Amino acid sequence: MARRWFTEAHQIFQTSLRRFVEKEIIPNIDRWEEERMIPRQLWKKLGENGFLCACLPEQYGGSDVDYSYSVIIQEELGRSTCTGISVGARVHSDVAVPYIAEFGTPAQKETILPGCTTGDIIMAIAMTEPGCGSDLAAIKTTAVKEGHDYIINGQKTFISNGICCDWVVVAVKTDSKATPAHRGVSLILIPADAPGFSKGQKLKKMGMHSQDTAELIFDDCRVPVENLLGEEGKGFQILMKNLQAERLVISLAAIVNAEKMLNVTLAYTKDRKAFGKPISSFQANAFKLVEMATEVELGRTLVESLIEDYLEGRDISRRVSMAKWWITEMANRLAYQCVQLHGGYGYMDEYVISRMYRDVRVQPILGGTNEVMKRILAQMMGL
């Protein structure tokens, strides 16, 4: 569908990124999946070409463009099917960095943001804990003031970019007795070389093998009080403020995945023959493909509407929560059908549909589970 915001400048940027993806990413995906890591060199190449944190002001090395360029970056990286960099770059550029850009002090911005645009600094955000998933107010990691420092103790898990990160935005409890509990949550910036901070094991996952996910451990970790991001006790509000953008980019990633899986499957079923004719021509299969194409079109229409509203500054919190749960679940339904239409080849890793089937499974879980999305929506509806 036509995008009213899409200009010639967007087209030039998209073409440049698409060429980069075809040259630097697609030929290496299988190797990176085996190695279970994206090389640091790729991050620096993305930075050199202006594909990291493009929305940041020029003083920090960004291009000072609007969120529409993040949309293009996420789409093109997502279409590559390399979740190692599409998810990693999303967490870095569209989740962690905006917190610093909006709430950081001048000193924090000068220290961290220029390296984020070049790929010399990789960001992570640490909220989830072993005993606490989507309930952020229930975190147990503490930060206690001692002189001019915070002493941090606790553990985080399922942290994207956890092994390769240079800085982490960490959600902590600075007041464990606060009522309600979320008023005790604060955010602290912690460098990878902070004393008492260690990176645990790189986690083995069902899918997204090239994407770096890790445990982070804080054992009397000491950082200066100047590393507080925003105000004490305001961490929950800060995180909630940016969740619209995070859920939008997850919805965008899911629809890009769904479109890619559909296109791969259409091509396969038109080429693959059974009983002397393409398997796409059998009515049962044709109906499946039509149904999938319709759901993908509905998902894309919703995402495009959300992008346009977000670019114009409208509140999308209700509809983006709907999009996050429905599109991620639709992508999983579609993944199942696409593997089935590939037959035995769909179960083989040499076919991209096999990898995509594994990779999309996490989407209904990350960024707040879909059950949490529905709970939020039920509250909005007064239920």
Task: List the defining traits of the structure above.
383 residues; alpha+beta; Butyryl-Coa Dehydrogenase, subunit A, domain 1; Butyryl-CoA Dehydrogenase, subunit A, domain 2; Butyryl-CoA Dehydrogenase, subunit A, domain 3; 3 domains; four-stranded mixed sheet; four-stranded antiparallel sheet; 12 helices; 10 strands; 50% helix; globular
Describe the main β-sheet briefly: 4 strands, mixed
What's the gyration radius in Å? Answer: 21 Å
Query: How would you spell out the order of helices and strands?
Result: HHHHHHEEEEEEEEHHEEHHHH
Count, helices: 12
Low-confidence parts lasting 5 or more residues at pLDDT below 50? none
CATH class value of the largest domain:
Mainly Alpha
What's the β-strand tally? Answer: 10
Based on the structure given, which CATH architecture of the largest domain is correct? Up-down Bundle
Give the CA-CA distance, first to last residue.
35 Å
Q: In percent terms, what proportion of residues is strand?
A: 15-25%
Strand order of the largest sheet: 1-4-5-8
- Please indicate the count of domains: 3
Helical percentage: 40-55%
Give the secondary structure arrangement, pairings included.
Blueprint: H1 8-25, H2 29-35, H3 40-48, H4 68-79, H5 83-103, H6 106-118, E1 123-126, E2 142-146, E3 149-160, E4 167-173, E5 185-191, E6 197-202, E7 213-224, E8 228-229, H7 235-241, H8 243-271, E9 273-274, E10 277-278, H9 283-311, H10 317-342, H11 352-360, H12 370-380
Parallel strand pairs: 1-4
Antiparallel strand pairs: 2-3, 3-7, 4-5, 5-8, 6-7, 9-10
